[in-house]
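PROTEIN DESIGN WORKSHEET
SECTION A - STRUCTURE
LENGTH: 268
TOKENS:
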């Protein structure tokens, strides 16, 4: 006995003409506007669009305006309007007009009376201003003019001396092997919190984004090390800058011996 009815997939109702994607229309309208002496039928065939569809799109554009895909960051674009304008973003990043570039986003928004959340401002800076955000400021230590001049004179005087030793009595060859290079740094507990500044990516060492290292205020922790051709020191820690000289240990190099000879060469 056959079943009373055979199950079938219900048919979908016929829909109206489906709207083409904006990108296809954009390419078609661009080709129409720059077709030169080519006909509309030629442009439709080159884009795989029926001639009737092309004329229908042109009639729609004439009645409703141009439906083109614009860039999302431009003034004329599809979608929702931008919350922050380009002028407002330039104001936030300007060193001369924004005195609170080092402050949090909440303080900058309050200073310019912007009715936006910090998250909105942060997203707009990253996506529309070369990944701009609050970066840690670069710290520089200014070298005095006398110290810089002494370094330049020392390099000019001994720059032609080398490390290759050919003659044991050749003093220029031994010069740099007896020179030690030391470096010292310190950490001031009163300046533990790093400073930030709102800037674009790649502008870390611009003059307006730099900050000079302030003088020591608290009980600073000093650390230093030195290295030479024959010796490498350990990292030492101290509180008084005059103490580190007492930690220096000078290791004298071994005496340069003549090359060894084989027994047969000695007998000859």
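SECTION B - SEQUENCE
RESIDUE ASSIGNMENT:
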């Amino acid at each position: 006995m056959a079943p009373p009815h055979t199950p079938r997939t219900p048919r979908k109702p016929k829909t109206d003409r489906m709207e083409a994607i904006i990108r296809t229309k954009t390419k078609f309208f661009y080709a129409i506007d720059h077709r030169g002496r080519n006909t509309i039928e030629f442009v439709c065939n080159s884009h795989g669009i029926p001639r009737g569809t092309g004329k229908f799109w042109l009639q729609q554009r004439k009645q409703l305006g141009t439906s083109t895909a614009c860039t999302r960051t431009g003034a004329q674009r599809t979608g929702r309007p931008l919350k922050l304008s380009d002028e407002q973003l330039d104001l936030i990043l300007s060193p001369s007009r924004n005195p609170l570039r080092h402050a949090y986003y909440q303080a900058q928004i309050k200073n310019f009376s912007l009715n936006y959340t910090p998250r909105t401002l942060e997203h707009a800076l990253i996506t529309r201003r070369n990944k701009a955000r609050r970066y840690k400021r670069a710290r520089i230590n200014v070298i005095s003019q006398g110290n810089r001049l002494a370094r330049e004179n020392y390099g000019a005087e001994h720059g032609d001396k080398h490390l290759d030793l050919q003659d044991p009595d050749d003093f220029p060859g031994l010069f740099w092997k007896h020179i030690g290079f030391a470096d010292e740094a310190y950490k001031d507990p009163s300046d533990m919190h790093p400073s930030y500044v709102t800037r674009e990516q790649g502008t870390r060492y611009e003059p307006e984004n730099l900050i000079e290292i302030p003088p020591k205020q608290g009980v600073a922790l000093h650390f230093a090390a030195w290295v030479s051709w024959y010796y490498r020191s350990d990292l030492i820690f101290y509180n008084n800058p005059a103490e580190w000289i007492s930690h220096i240990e000078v290791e004298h190099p071994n005496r340069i011996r003549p090359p060894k000879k084989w027994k047969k060469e000695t007998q000859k």
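SECTION C - NOTES
Strands lie at 133-136, 138-140, 181-187, 196-199, 210-212, 221-227, 236-238.
The chain has nine helices and seven strands.
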